[in-house]
Amino acid sequence: MQETKTLNVKVPAGVDTGDRIRLAGEGEAGANGGPAGDLYVQVQVKDHPIFTRDGANLYCEVPISFPMACLGGELEVPTLDGKVMLKIPPETQTGRMFRLRGKGVKPVRGGAVGDLLCKVQLETPVHLTKDQKAMIEKLGESLSGGGKHHSPQEHGWMDGVKNFFDKLTG
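^ that's the sequence the OP posted. Answer follows.
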């Protein structure tokens, strides 16, 4: 006899896409009146709006303001266990990764809890007032006199571009 049945499945913490959960005796009836087989539920984990998962590790991108990138500070970061404070050191560059050990996923089959890796992204201010634009221009003028001292990545890149073109023409 064929029937439809609704089952509740306990999904353990730490399961990942492709994992299977076995429900003993919930499959098709056995041949010749034998016991029912097992039902396997295959897990498909939905994407999360904040975290990306890679095994036991979680990744997220965290926007930081220009002043925080320059001067440092602390910001609140969500984890699976609640919020934690992430210390941003002065002169942090966009793209820098911070590792929060043990704040990732606890694997369902045992093993060490993963880490949460937070990649900071510098958020450029938008909708600036005239006064704010003037202050940034003044800051830019002040920094431009420092050359490589204030912008080592920019100057290193520019030197590489210059060398590239020198080799082409020379």
